[in-house]
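Q: How would the structure tokens look for this protein?
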Amino acid sequence: MALHLSIFKLAIGGLIAAAALAASAEDAHTHWDYRGKLGAKAWGDLEPGFATCKLGKHQSPIDIKARQAKKVALTPIGFDYAESGGETVNTGHTIQVNLANGGTLHLAQGDFKLVQFHFHTPSEERIDGKAYPMVAHLVHKSDAGQLAVVAVLLKEGHENAALKSVFDALPAKAGQAEPLKAALNLSDLLPAGHDYYHFTGSLTTPPCSEDVSWQVLKQPVEISRGQLAAFRKLYRMNARPVQPLNGRVLEQS
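A: Here is the predicted structure in token form.
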């Protein structure tokens, strides 16, 4: 049992390091925020490594104009998720769930391993100007280091059973981590329909690195008012404003 626990801790430790790069991109020496002097408008000036936040031309999130999205025969997303243990972390900017072995995402450009998922309220992505109460960003990384994110929009409704174990035990303090009490399979979080919008964008937090493949699922899933309230007790607002499209091609299936 002790050996198995040590191996699990090592695996989680590696995932935390990868997850920090892949999504939240925390920097130990530079504090940033969503409002005030350290808010999104200032990110690009906080340190040289954050310059892409103001100079990048392919930034995320965006306001998806459905009628302007080109209707094409996009390759269906291949979700090959697996039940996995892991841990829930309060990063100081969001609640993030690191998974030990969450499975694989199959896209036209290759295969990506599911590393972690985290939340923003309201949704960072807008559809025809409309924001949803929350969004879950499912972050994946290829063997070559490329990133792909699937955005699952969350609307108020029934309790989300797939997220119950996460929202019932949210770490209250920044830096606090709690092991998952039950294994998760993110297939249970996905909507029935997998039609999606696709574009090339960036991380939505500093350093705002670009060349991230974005897939925003069209069909939202429900989350309860209580689950929303539990998250907003910790993070009332943690969404970056939408960014200019700058001539990028926006596609939809």
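The longest helix spans residues 2-24.

Residues 1-28 have pLDDT under 50 and may be disordered.

Upvote if useful.
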